[in-house]
Design a protein that fits this description.
alpha/beta, single chain
């Protein structure tokens, strides 16, 4: 959906990311954030053109968007936005926050949910201070990333504007899923069945040297 097609709540949290592919940890974190902060809506925001260079070729924006829609369709509190996909140029967080607030109006309260790995590198983001001033940043713990270093990394004043949420440390990652598909291994129970079927149908992440077994037990 475009920004004009999604009915936005006055209070919402945005789950930004590449979602290549979306998986159960994303959904679990989103639901935990929604319930903890009593939010009416979580908006998943697949990035169109990630501003930070990836160490792999990112799957097409359309495929990532469709997988996000498939994964979230069963939850009436979840929505998926095409805002960053349809906006030309790099997908800068500050531009997305400002577009959302302009759409909602002066009463908008936008939270931005991001992983520990990303928040620890926040000073490399485009206009990080503007982001911290215009949205509530919710940092999600991730295995291997120490959020106790937030003061040291961002400085005490910036770190004070980041809320670390008490979320389960899920070991699932998009990288894990891509690697398992390439190796011909099962990804059952890592992402919803509809996403698995889509990956299989589109032959995403497949190493042609291996048989596709994404939906098999393993």
């Amino acid at each position: 959906m475009s920004i004009d097609d999604v009915i936005l709540s006055r209070r919402l949290a945005v789950m930004g990311g590449t979602f290549d592919p979306i998986h159960y940890a994303h959904l679990l974190i989103a639901e935990d954030v929604r319930r903890h902060f009593k939010l009416p809506q979580i908006l998943f925001m697949p990035s169109g053109s990630p501003p930070h260079k990836k160490d792999y070729e990112v799957t097409s924006a359309e495929d990532r968007y469709i997988m996000a829609v498939l994964a979230t369709s069963g939850n009436p509190h979840f929505a998926v936005s095409r805002l960053e996909l349809d906006r030309p140029g790099p997908s800068y967080t500050i531009e997305t926050i400002r577009q959302l607030k302009a759409k909602i109006g002066d009463e908008a309260q936008v939270s931005w949910v991001t992983g520990a790995d990303a928040v620890l590198e926040m000073l490399t983001w485009h206009q990080p201070d503007a982001i911290l001033n215009e949205a509530q940043i919710l940092a999600v713990p991730r295995p291997g990333f120490d959020l106790s270093r937030l003061d040291e990394t961002l400085g005490a004043e910036r770190a004070s504007k980041v809320t670390i949420i008490d979320a389960p440390l899920a070991e699932i990652s998009s990288t894990m899923i891509r690697e398992r598909v390439r190796a011909g291994e099962s990804i059952r129970y890592l992402t919803p069945r509809a996403v698995i079927d889509y990956i299989e149908k589109r032959r995403l992440y497949v190493d042609e040297a291996h048989e596709v077994m994404v939906g098999e037990t393993g």
